[in-house]
Design a protein that fits this description.
Number of strands: 3
Radius of gyration: 13 Å
Structural class: mainly beta
GO molecular function: ubiquitin protein ligase activity; zinc ion binding
Protein name: RING-type E3 ubiquitin transferase
Strand content: 5-15%
CATH architecture: 2-Layer Sandwich
Membrane topology: Multi-pass membrane protein
Number of domains: 1
Strand order of the largest sheet: 2-1-3
Subcellular location: Mitochondrion outer membrane
Bound molecules: zinc ion
GO biological process, one term: positive regulation of developmental process
Length: about 80
């Protein structure tokens, strides 16, 4: 399994936004831990457990702003 190097401007897929330190698997909030939970009902996988727990009440998905009714741990496959 390849592990991403810490570099700016990934060779593949310049997706529109800049400041792209964002690794595919890193939490969108802290950008350092790996994503480890799935928010329901929206189904987004975007943050680590710690950031989820740190979200202010009422907890909302940081991506779509839907209320989070349930969280399922993400298992690495
Ligand atoms: Zn995080
Ligand atoms: Zn969402």
């Amino acid at each position: 399994r390849y592990r991403p190097l810490h570099q700016r401007g990934a060779p593949e897929g310049h997706s529109g936004d800049r400041g792209g330190e964002t690794l595919k698997n890193s939490c969108v909030i802290c950008l350092s831990n790996t994503k480890s939970c799935v928010f329901l009902e929206c189904g987004h996988v975007c943050s680590c457990r710690e950031c989820y727990q740190a979200l202010p009440e009422p907890k909302r998905c940081p991506i779509c702003r839907q209320a989070i009714s349930r969280v399922v741990p993400l298992y690495n496959s």
